[in-house]
């Protein structure tokens, strides 16, 4: 009985995610055949990091709208907080992968969170010879 309450609580918290995080969570549930325990733990990870990311967003907004800092200071402070957000997302990725079985990690890397291409992909070029376009 207590287990059901805990799972329900985590599911409710998962509903407070950003739309991007919610889609990612839903894709994980759909594509990875998660166990009930894995799903609960993943919801907990998403919720914990969502709170931290939302806090950073609020801090960024406060800095941008406060008017108490010079423009150069605002740029520096916001860029530092943006880097913190990026670092938090990277840590979240590691935490999520630690909860998955090796075969689930393969599916996760291929379908849910594929690596970005290593090259800048823009401009006029020969698409037949482009490694990114061929894929």
Protein described:
By secondary structure, the chain is mainly α. It is flat. The N and C termini lie far apart (49 Å). The N terminus is likely disordered.
Features:
single chain; 135 residues; mainly alpha; flat; disordered N terminus
Q: What are the low-pLDDT stretches, counting only 5+ consecutive residues below 50?
A: 1-15
Cα-based radius of gyration, to the nearest Å: 19 Å
Main β-sheet description:
none
The helix/strand class is mainly alpha
Mean pLDDT: 83
Q: In angstroms, what separates the terminal alpha carbons?
A: 49 Å
Instruction: Work out the helix count.
Output: 6
Strand content: under 5%
Shape: flat
**Residues in helices, as a percent range:** over 70%
Q: How many DSSP-defined strands? A: 0
Succession of helices and strands: HHHHHH
Question: How is the topology of this model organized?
Answer:
Blueprint: H1 2-14, H2 19-32, H3 36-66, H4 71-98, H5 102-112, H6 131-134
Structure in a nutshell:
With 135 residues, this protein is an all-alpha fold. It has helices spanning 2-14, 19-32, 36-66, 71-98, 102-112, 131-134.
């Amino acid at each position: 009985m207590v287990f059901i309450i805990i799972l329900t609580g985590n599911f409710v918290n998962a509903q407070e995610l950003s739309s991007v995080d919610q889609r990612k969570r839903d894709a994980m549930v759909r594509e990875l055949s998660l166990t009930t325990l894995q799903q609960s733990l993943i919801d907990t990870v998403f919720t914990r990091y969502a709170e931290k990311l939302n806090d950073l967003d609020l801090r960024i907004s406060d800095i941008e709208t406060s008017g108490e800092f010079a423009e150069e200071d605002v740029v520096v402070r916001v860029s530092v907080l943006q880097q913190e957000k990026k670092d938090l997302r990277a840590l979240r990725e590691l935490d999520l992968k630690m909860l998955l079985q090796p075969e689930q990690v393969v599916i996760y890397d291929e379908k849910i969170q594929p690596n970005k291409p290593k090259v800048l992909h823009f401009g006029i070029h020969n698409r037949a010879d482009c490694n990114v376009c061929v894929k």
